[in-house]
């Protein structure tokens, strides 16, 4: 018999972008972030044993952070154009929020999603090198519910989870509904990331 079609239903796009001149930007960001971390208390969300800034990344005026915010906005728009080419971006307002995570040895993030947004992302300022194991990996969890015996086939399409360890300079973008968590950092160096949420809202027409 001849295959007529194989449709991949309910796809979950996870995108990676390379940020230009990331080495220079990361050096600047590292300096700015360490100064912020030393000056501010931070908050506890899904972070365990790490430092998490407040959510006001887009209101800050440090030049490195402002440059990164522009890259975040670009990746948010690029992901939308790729996945939803018919969506009228100009008829909507983009709302973005972001925060910094500094994760020393032993720090990790518990499983969570980011409700009330379309896209979420993470930029990797530093990512300690790892020879083996899962230190510092982000793991996405299957949003489709129970796969039952389908996992026996060991096919990627039927897997429960997907793990990656993005390199520094990478902007990762994924749907906000997608559950994820971060494996503990087992390296002596700190892992620094900047996470964000983005959503489009219909623009209110002038009366
Ligand atoms: Fe997250």
Q: What would CATH call the class?
A: Mainly Beta
Heterogens? fe (ii) ion
CATH architecture: Sandwich
Into which percent range does the helicity of residues fall?
A: 10-25%
Unreliable stretches (pLDDT < 50, length at least 5) are: none
Give the DSSP E fraction (strand runs of 2 or more residues). 25-35%
Q: Give the distance, in angstroms, between the N- and C-terminal Cα atoms.
A: 61 Å
Tally of DSSP helical segments: 2
Question: Could you walk me through the main structural features you see in this protein, from its secondary elements to its overall organization?
Answer:
The structure is a single chain. The strands form 2 sheets. This protein has a 6-stranded antiparallel sheet with strand order 1-9-6-11-4-3. The protein has a 5-stranded antiparallel sheet with strand order 2-5-10-7-8, with no helix packed on it. It has 207 residues and is of the alpha+beta class. 19% of the residues lie in helices and 30% in strands. α1 packs across α2. It has a single domain (15-201), classed as q2cbj1_9rhob like domain (Jelly Rolls), CATH 2.60.120. It has 2 helices and 11 strands, in the order βαββαββββββββ.
